[in-house]
Design a protein that fits this description.
Number of strands: 2
Strand content: 5-15%
Distance between the termini: 34 Å
Helix content: 55-70%
Structural class: mainly alpha
Radius of gyration: 20 Å
Mean pLDDT: 80
Number of helices: 4
Largest sheet: 2 strands, antiparallel
Shape: globular
Order of helices and strands: EEHHHH
Length: 123
């Protein structure tokens, strides 16, 4: 496997990069966890939407919970990744608003209007 490393004159050269050790058991466990959480998300969303929670509020709740879990995990394992340069704030804000909150709001609105099966098929 190769990676690019910049040298002094802004050109890039290829250097050997060792591949991380693979763990099939960990991969299967992560895939099973992802599938379980995905199924739980649809079922929980249907329950909350049927209980008259607005789709926008549900999207907000999902975003806040995801941020809290990911920020806590990064703070514990790799705190250096939480440092953001000021020039990166506008693109990150756009990504968060359009890419995360917007998609979730439309997804939950579709579940409310069409049902979870149809919404997941369209997604």
């Amino acid at each position: 496997m190769f990676g690019c490393v910049p040298d002094g004159n802004a050109a890039a050269r290829l250097t050997d990069v060792t591949a991380p050790r693979r763990s099939p058991k960990l991969g299967y466990a992560l895939a099973a966890t992802a599938a379980t959480l995905w199924a739980l998300n649809g079922s929980l969303a249907t329950f909350l939407l049927d209980d008259h929670m607005p789709a926008a509020r549900l999207a907000e709740l999902r975003a806040v919970c995801a941020f809290a879990i990911l920020a806590a995990g990064l703070a514990l394992t790799r705190p250096g990744l939480l440092k953001v340069e000021p020039r990166h704030i506008p693109p990150l804000a756009l990504l968060g608003i359009v890419g995360f909150a917007g998609v979730n709001a439309f997804y939950f609105a579709a579940i409310k209007r069409l049902g979870v099966g149809v919404a997941l098929t369209i997604q």
